[in-house]
Write a structure and sequence with these properties.
heterodimer; A: FAD/NAD(P)-binding domain; Enolase-like, domain 1; 3 domains; 26 strands; B: alpha+beta; 5 helices; 21% helix; binds flavin-adenine dinucleotide
Chain lengths: 407, 142
């Protein structure tokens, strides 16, 4: 069997691991347009902070590709898939043939159309190791940084730059920080943490235009800056599949075996849409665990297995200066809020199921809650009143506990 | 592979497993000197309510969601044992977000720790098992 994988990141690596569980011999070619070994994309902010380095940031060991007999083609981009002739075409014209193809192309930063954007001198996104290197080369304690986007990526960027630059401003259209995971009230506590450290927020606002390194905001404030970071969202890389008639919505449409609508072509991770069981519909879940689980599923199925991945949910852990926020699922249903010593726990319950939750501050054992959502545990079968106060296996009945502890 | 199994029927709730675990991982010449007046941070922990007590530690799952979710690629499985590379861990808490059993804990150094079946501290039999006075924790192949 001849496998080709496009995208050398988490989803691509997981595809290799999935294939190799079942097929130790088949030929695997992994093509990635970044010139590096796969690295942990979420760690680029830790790289700037100095909590990891260019070696430790690698997602797998140095021997990974060799041990798994992976033929690597790095620094080259796939520009076309030809599913009739079963080949992909690279940007240097080279063709690589496949029997089974995995599309793990991830996402690209969204650049909003803003007048004068092209006149900005020093600008970057915050997605890749090259973006992190760009920032490390351009920042110093005299620089003002403007970040567009107060989401997960924008705020992780702000956190890692604090203390390394003179001033950080963050602009966002939303009325709160981290709008994808927090409601307004909870978002305020995170904003406070960052404001205390010196980040200045311009919320419910946006950049109307740029003139070189000056931003003119919607509310007419004027912000001069030295470096612009654009972190207003990502868009799935769907073009390769779309061009040849594969079904694509916002992301590439896949089933629970990670098959696309095209024969022998699989997809997963940030470029694809996933059925979110807490939401009840398909959406792009641009999170690392999802990229891994889909890559692994695709890999096993490409190698003749019969694996399904059918309990995806959004889930996230993010922290700023040791202040942690964990969230999962969908905020739908009856809200139950508990506040204790400044720690918040908020749960959303519907149809006897936990649909979503967020923990702010104390996050110990949060995975017990996540498992209730992923396993669709009927809340009437557990001691729910006890578990929302303190996650613990004691809230399950003895039979379930025995399954966990003695199996 | 050999795993740690817990039988809550025999658990006395004495918390000795927690002390033996902490001691095995801290080291030193005796438990008293190593742990006295210190806040221990064991990888096995007793949960209790009413008259029920039992110990919980990593199950070393065959389908480890922590490993698959780790954003740093810091978790691996060697001969079935789920291990954390503390050099690579950045303390992001994603493993805490996903572990269904709540068995990962933050160390004082800001990275995660978990039971590695004492493969990382030189004991042949896990310390919690060796020290359990009532065989409520056993180490065996099933
Ligand atoms: C700063 C930051 C922080 C994050 N923090 C978290 C977090 O805390 N938790 C979390 O769960 N997630 C986090 N994420 C999201 C996480 O990184 C992604 O969900 C994950 O990387 C998706 O993996 P993927 O393999 O699907 O895609 P990607 O990681 O985007 O990789 C796709 C790869 O494919 C390559 N590629 C694309 N098109 C082609 C082509 N035509 N030819 C060849 N190669 C191609 C790309 O260059 C890229 O290397 C973060 C992301 C960022 C940027």
């Amino acid at each position: 069997m001849n496998y080709v994988i496009i995208g050398n990141s988490v989803c691509g690596i997981a595809t290799v691991e999935g294939i190799r569980k079942l097929d130790k011999k088949g030929k695997i070619t992994l093509i990635g347009n970044e010139k590096y070994k796969a690295y942990s994309r979420p760690l680029i902010s830790y790289l700037i902070e100095g909590k990891t380095d260019l070696n430790k940031i690698n997602y797998r060991s140095d021997e990974f590709y060799e041990e798994n007999k992976v033929h690597t083609v790095f620094g080259k981009k796939v520009v076309k898939i030809d599913n009739d002739e079963k080949k992909v075409v690279l940007d240097n014209g080279k063709e690589i043939f496949f029997d089974k193809l995995m599309v793990a192309t991830g996402s690209k930063p969204f650049i909003p159309p803003i007048a004068g954007y092209e006149t900005v001198k020093n600008k970057t996104s915050f997605m890749t190791i090259d973006d992190a290197k760009y920032l490390m080369e351009h920042i110093d304690i005299s620089k003002n940084v403007l970040i567009m986007g107060a989401g997960l990526i924008g705020l992780k960027c702000a956190e890692c730059l604090l203390g390394k630059v003179k001033f950080i401003s963050v602009v966002d259209l939303a009325d709160r920080v981290l709008p994808s995971i927090l409601k307004k009230e909870e978002a305020k506590s995170v904003q406070d943490v960052l404001e205390e450290k010196g980040v200045k927020f311009y919320l419910e606002n946006s950049v109307a235009s740029f003139e070189k390194n000056v931003a003119f905001l919607k509310d007419e404030q004027v912000l001069p800056f030295d470096i612009l970071v654009t972190a207003v969202g990502v868009r799935p890389n769907v073009e390769l599949v779309k061009e040849i008639g594969g079904v694509v919505n916002r992301g590439i449409v896949i089933n629970d075996k990670c098959e696309t609508s095209l024969k022998d072509i699989y997809a997963g991770g940030d470029c694809a849409e996933t059925f979110d069981i807490s939401f009840g519909d398909k959406r792009v879940l641009a999170i690392l665990p999802n990229a891994y689980l889909e890559g692994e599923t695709a890999g096993e199925n490409m190698a003749g297995g019969n694996k399904t991945f059918d309990n995806a949910i959004p889930m996230n852990s993010i922290g700023f200066f040791g202040f942690h926020i964990i969230s999962a699922g969908t905020y739908d249903g009856e809200k139950i809020a508990i506040e204790e010593d400044g720690n918040k726990r908020i749960f959303y319950v519907k149809d006897d199921l936990l649909k979503g939750y967020m923990l702010i501050g104390k996050v110990d054992k949060a995975g017990i809650y996540t498992s209730l959502i992923r396993n669709k545990t009927k809340l009437s079968t557990i001691d729910f009143n006890a578990i929302i106060k303190e996650p613990s296996l004691i809230c399950f009945d003895k039979k379930r506990r025995d399954e966990i502890l003695t199996n | 592979m050999k795993r740690v199994y817990v039988n809550e029927k025999w658990c006395l709730g004495c918390h000795l497993c927690e002390y033996n675990c902490a001691y095995a991982n801290v080291g030193g010449i005796n438990m008293y000197l190593s742990l006295k007046d210190k806040k221990i941070s064991p990888n096995v922990r007793i949960e209790e309510k009413d008259n029920i007590t039992y110990a919980v530690a990593c199950r070393h799952c065959s389908d480890p969601i922590c490993l698959k979710s780790c954003i740093a690629g810091a978790i691996s499985q060697e001969d079935g044992v789920i291990k954390i590379n503390k050099d690579k861990c950045v303390g992001c808490h994603t493993c805490i977000l996903v572990c269904p059993y709540g068995v990962l804990h933050l160390t004082d150094n800001g990275v995660m720790q978990k039971c590695e079946l004492c493969t990382n501290n030189g004991s042949k039999t896990p310390a919690c098992v060796k020290g359990c006075p009532n065989n409520a924790i056993v180490f065996m192949e099933k």
